[in-house]
């Protein structure tokens, strides 16, 4: 469904990755593992169709946003959701945050009309807060949330508009085990709904727990992609093996 | 203290002009005079600040969210504009609206519209500069989230404005403070005019104070000064209140 | 009393507008009130200038004494117009008119008025009223000028004693008069004792009061402020028998519509006709502050005074006309 082929990206003289190929299908969970600073975030932004690759192609269902016009690119971008390492919530209530993606997809007349309506949260908002177990926080201002709760809201915010692809960038790196478990369960729920999920993580155990397939990003490219069990038990690539066994320390 | 003059002003603002001379803090004024001066001050300053905000905030968001060559230069020009002397602005606007100037045919000299023009010029740099600082201070992650979750440029700008609302409110207040407390340019382009029955046409609180001081009536000038301070405090309080309500809403 | 005056002035209005209408049609130089507002009354007698605005630039001394607010109501009601009086000081008032930003000027510096007329900006000048200047200072009079019959001698004495003197320094009519006096005295003021404030008369009086200094003031402003300051008159002006050089005559002039075609010439001439009429001249003489008369009318006279219409020293033989 979402496929990057031979993509390269650099900032100035600094190559982040080169000739990299990765894809995710509906309902599939792909983990991108690799040490911090290896370019996972840049890769996810490229997959989110918000960063144009220097070389190569990113296509969603066969359409390349970077050869499409701006309106078409927006339509494609809106089929992707993303959760950041920091929750990056907007000022306001939990419901306003979760509703954001739905709101920006409405017409201006509807949006202006909704300003004068005192309606409760939409069904989609309540459902996606239910996935992360925060329905009781719907009308709370976000600055009253704990870090873990904020990240769960961030997840619900990306899920609410029912994207085809969900990208998670180190979503649990700052979280305690309980909140981590909630997020990981929510990833499972998303894939059950047929959403293709890409999780970038430096936590190999998390990758083992949630992923159907694993891509190993080392230095400036993907060394190996394959089914999770295969990568962890029988890596074909020497550098992958060293990274997984902990011999290769970054 | 600030409430007292405001409370006493309310009838003066509403009263058409019948009855004896009004008294304020023990100093007597002609009926309707102080009210009309306040009305002109507020009309001119609020209009100028409103127009300026309509230009400045989008400009600040556009500058803050875009990378372009010469951005640093643009910022320094805006910051320099904050310190622009008001009399110089007054002179420039005077040349523009004077009969001999490019806008002479509009006959704007000694009108409130000319005063609005000069205050617009004065208020725009501080509103733009402080808004720009506030916009630049908005977390990159929030901006990214607004975009990646499907927002258009306008959506991102709206999110950024909401995040920066306190800074923008401060910017608008700074612009209002500069406009309403400014005396040099409004005196030059407005002419400090009242009609013969004491109703202000282009007299503001500041030029009224200047007029009283010119005649050595410092006590009267102080009373008007107190009214000006009360007015600024009131507007600030209203904006802060409004801003607080915006957070939860 | 004010009501009585108002009816008197109103009765006079019809005659005034008739006379100024004649003035604008015969005295026009081609610029004929381009806004279509001829000074002629309509059939029912309502003047067609109604609703227009007359911009008058004038000096702080006429404005700040409250005289204009007192008398303008009559003019506004009579013609159904608005007078925007802008108090600027003589130099600035003339400059504003020079730029075509006012319709009429009322100032008190004959030299500057003459220059304004010679340059073609002002026409139809009339002597309006006068008061006088006085030299004021602290009651203990450190330089000892009290009783000096000559203003120039008094200033020379101040300069020799290096007693503090506050100058307006703002190109106002009073400042111009002060500079003329120094010139006549043959003294070039300067040094620590001579302070230019660059402010209005009221502030200058306050500055002089606080420093126990001397200054030149118009009588009107001094009277209106006398109760708040400790200064006293040391050299009288001609109103109280002092030297003629301290006379302070006010003139009024229309802006030349031949130079600035947007000038509201008809209304300006109506104003000149009105303010030089016996009724308003009487009202000026009756205007009092703190129980004292501030201005002495001089527009109404049995004898002709042709000098008021032209720059001083001008004669029809001059080649610069």
From TrEMBL, chain A:
Q: Name one GO biological process term.
A: phosphate ion transmembrane transport
The answer to whether UniProt assigns keyword Electron transport to this entry is no
Q: Which PROSITE patterns match?
A: ABC_TRANSPORTER_1 (PS00211), ABC_TRANSPORTER_2 (PS50893)
What is one term from the GO cellular component aspect held by the record?
membrane
**All residue ranges annotated as the ABC transporter domain in the record:** 2-244
Record keyword Nucleotide-binding present? yes
Record SMART domains: AAA
Q: What is this protein called?
A: ABC transporter
The taxonomy runs: Archaea, Methanobacteriati, Methanobacteriota, Stenosarchaea group, Halobacteria
TrEMBL record, chain B:
| Segments forming domain ABC transmembrane type-1 | 38-239
Xref: Pfam families: BPD_transp_1
Q: Where in the cell is it found?
A: Cell membrane; Membrane
Primary location group? membrane
Keyword Membrane annotated: yes
Task: Note the topology in the membrane.
Answer: Multi-pass membrane protein
Could you tell me which PROSITE patterns the record lists for this protein? ABC_TM1 (PS50928)
The Swiss-Prot or TrEMBL record describes its family as follows: Belongs to the binding-protein-dependent transport system permease family.
Which protein, by its recorded name, is this?
A: Binding-protein-dependent transporters inner membrane component
């Amino acid at each position: 469904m979402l496929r990057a082929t031979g993509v390269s990206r650099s900032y100035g003289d600094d190559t982040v990755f080169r000739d990299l190929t990765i894809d995710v299908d509906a309902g599939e969970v792909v983990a991108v593992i690799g040490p911090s600073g290896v370019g996972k975030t840049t890769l996810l932004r490229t997959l989110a169709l918000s960063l144009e690759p220097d070389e190569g192609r990113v296509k969603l269902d066969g359409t390349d946003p970077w050869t499409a016009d701006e309106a078409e690119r927006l339509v494609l971008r809106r089929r992707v959701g993303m959760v950041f390492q920091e929750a990056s919530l907007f000022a306001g209530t939990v419901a306003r945050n979760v509703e954001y993606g739905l709101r920006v997809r409405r017409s201006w007349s509807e949006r202006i009309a909704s300003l004068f309506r005192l309606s409760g949260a939409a069904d989609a908002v309540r459902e996606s807060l239910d996935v992360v177990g925060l329905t009781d926080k719907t009308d709370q201002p976000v600055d009253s949330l704990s870090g873990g709760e904020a990240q769960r809201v961030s997840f619900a915010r990306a899920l609410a508009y029912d994207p085809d692809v969900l990208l998670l960038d180190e979503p649990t790196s700052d979280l305690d085990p309980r909140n981590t478990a909630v997020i990981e369960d929510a990833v499972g729920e998303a894939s059950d709904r047929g959403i293709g999920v890409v999780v970038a993580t430096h936590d190999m155990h998390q990758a083992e727990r949630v992923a159907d397939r694993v891509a190993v990003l080392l230095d400036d490219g993907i060394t190996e992609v394959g089914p999770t069990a295969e990568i962890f038990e029988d890596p074909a690539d020497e550098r992958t093996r060293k990274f997984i066994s902990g011999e290769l320390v970054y | 203290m600030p409430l007292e003059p405001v409370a006493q002003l309310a009838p003066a603002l509403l009263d058409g002009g019948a009855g004896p001379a009004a008294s304020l803090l023990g100093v007597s004024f002609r009926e309707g005079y102080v009210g009309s001066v306040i009305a002109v001050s507020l009309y001119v300053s609020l209009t100028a600040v409103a127009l300026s905000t309509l230009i400045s905030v989008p400009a600040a968001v556009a500058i803050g969210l875009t990378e372009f060559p010469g951005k640093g230069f643009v910022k320094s020009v805006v910051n320099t504009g904050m310190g622009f002397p008001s009399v110089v602005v007054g002179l420039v606007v005077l040349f523009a609206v004077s009969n001999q100037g490019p806008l002479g045919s509009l006959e704007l000299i000694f009108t409130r519209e000319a005063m609005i023009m000069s205050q617009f010029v004065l208020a725009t740099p501080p509103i733009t500069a402080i808004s720009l600082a506030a916009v630049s201070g908005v977390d990159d992650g929030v901006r990214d989230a607004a975009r990646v979750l499907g927002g258009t440029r306008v959506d991102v700008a709206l999110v950024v404005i909401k995040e920066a609302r306190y800074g923008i409110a401060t910017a608008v207040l700074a612009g209002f403070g500069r406009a309403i407390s400014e005396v040099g340019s409004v005196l030059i382009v407005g002419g400090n005019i009242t009609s013969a029955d004491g109703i202000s046409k282009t007299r503001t609180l500041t030029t009224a104070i200047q007029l009283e001081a010119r005649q050595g009536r410092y006590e009267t000038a102080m009373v008007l000064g107190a009214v000006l301070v009360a007015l600024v405090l009131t507007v600030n309080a209203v904006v802060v209140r409004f801003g607080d309500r915006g957070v939860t809403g | 009393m004010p009501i009585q005056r108002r009816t008197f002035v109103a009765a006079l209005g019809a005659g005034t507008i008739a006379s100024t209408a004649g003035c604008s049609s015969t005295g026009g130089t081609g610029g004929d009130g381009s806004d279509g507002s001829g000074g002629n009354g309509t059939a029912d007698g309502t003047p067609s200038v109604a609703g227009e605005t007359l911009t008058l630039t004038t000096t702080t001394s006429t404005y700040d004494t409250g005289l204009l607010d007192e008398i303008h109501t009559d003019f506004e009601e009579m013609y159904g117009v608005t007078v925007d009086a802008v108090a600027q000081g003589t130099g600035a008032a003339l400059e504003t008119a020079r730029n075509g930003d006012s319709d009429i000027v009322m100032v008190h510096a004959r030299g500057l008025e003459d220059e304004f007329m010679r340059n073609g900006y002002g026409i139809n000048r009339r002597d309006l009223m006068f008061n006088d200047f006085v030299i004021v200072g602290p009651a203990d009079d450190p330089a000892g000028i009290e009783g000096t019959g000559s203003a120039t001698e008094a200033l020379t004495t101040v300069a020799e004693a290096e007693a503090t003197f506050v100058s307006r320094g703002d190109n106002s009519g009073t400042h111009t008069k002060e500079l003329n006096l120094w010139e006549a005295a043959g003294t070039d003021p300067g040094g620590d004792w001579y302070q230019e404030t660059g402010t209005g008369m009221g502030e200058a009086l306050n500055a002089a009061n606080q420093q126990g200094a001397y200054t030149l003031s118009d009588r009107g402003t001094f009277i209106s402020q006398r109760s708040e300051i400790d200064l006293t008159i040391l050299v009288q002006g001609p109103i109280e028998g002092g030297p003629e050089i301290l006379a302070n005559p006010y003139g009024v002039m229309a802006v030349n519509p031949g130079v600035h075609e947007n000038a509201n010439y008809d209304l300006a001439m109506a104003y000149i006709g009105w303010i030089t009429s016996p009724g308003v001249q009487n009202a000026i003489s009756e205007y009092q502050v703190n129980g004292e008369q501030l201005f002495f009318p001089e527009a109404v006279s049995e004898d002709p005074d042709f000098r008021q219409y032209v720059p001083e020293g001008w004669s029809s033989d001059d080649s610069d006309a």
